[in-house]
Write a structure and sequence with these properties.
With 170 residues, the chain is α+β, with helices and mostly antiparallel strands. The chain folds into two domains: 2-49 and 117-162, Alpha-Beta Plaits (2-Layer Sandwich); 56-112, no CATH class. Helix content is 49%, strand content 15%. The chain has helices at 12-24, 50-53, 56-80, 91-112, 118-121, 124-128, 143-153, and strands at 2-9, 32-35, 132-139, 158-162. The chain has a four-stranded antiparallel sheet with strand order 2-3-1-4. The longest helix is centred in the middle third of the chain and has 25 residues, at 56-80. The radius of gyration is 22 Å and the shape is elongated. The mean pLDDT is 82. Keywords: Membrane, Transmembrane, Transmembrane helix.
Length: 170
């Protein structure tokens, strides 16, 4: 199981050092995400993308679930009340459920991409004040090791804890 570790770093220079240390600890850049204020020079750092900074993943997951339920209900309705005497089988229920899940995920992701990730909103003031938020996706059994590495080597780092799991979508 993956976990996302959050910590605040005092500045960009420290962030570069932490990234180097994590690379030496066999954490790839694909597992690191940095969020800093817009005026900060983050070149050479693994910047967070739209999936980390927006509400895309959460919205798509909820949309897929709602769409699947709606699709299954529509399929069951068509099964019970077939239109114009057309014979409908159980495959229609599965097909409408899958179609509903896909449509729901797509529509919800279009809405979610326009909203900030609520997890990051709590860090916005620190980011605006010049601190750098770093997120690292790790196997659950390495979280304590990486926390200790950061804490021991960079006393200015403020470890904020972990998410219970890394978002699975997209």
């Amino acid at each position: 199981m993956q976990r996302r570790l959050y910590f605040l770093l005092p500045d960009i220079e420290t962030t570069h050092k932490v990234v180097e240390k994590l690379l030496l600890a066999r954490i790839s850049e694909d597992q690191m995400y940095v969020v800093a204020r817009h005026s900060a020079d983050t070149s050479g750092l693994p910047e967070a993308g739209i999936t980390e900074t927006s509400h895309l993943a959460g919205a798509a997951e909820r949309g897929a679930a709602a769409g699947a339920v709606t699709g299954v209900v529509a399929g069951l309705t068509a099964l019970v009340f077939p239109p114009a005497g057309i014979a409908i089988g159980g495959g229609v229920v599965a097909a409408t459920g899958l179609a509903g899940a896909g449509f729901g995920a797509w529509m919800s992701s279009m809405i979610g991409i326009r909203h900030d990730n609520p997890q990051l909103e709590s860090y916005q003031e620190a980011i605006d004040n010049g601190q750098v938020l770093m997120m690292v996706d790790l196997p659950a059994d390495r979280v304590e090791e990486i926390e200790n590495t950061v804490r021991d080597n960079y006393p200015g780092a403020d470890i904020q804890g972990t998410d219970p799991h890394k978002p699975a979508f997209p």
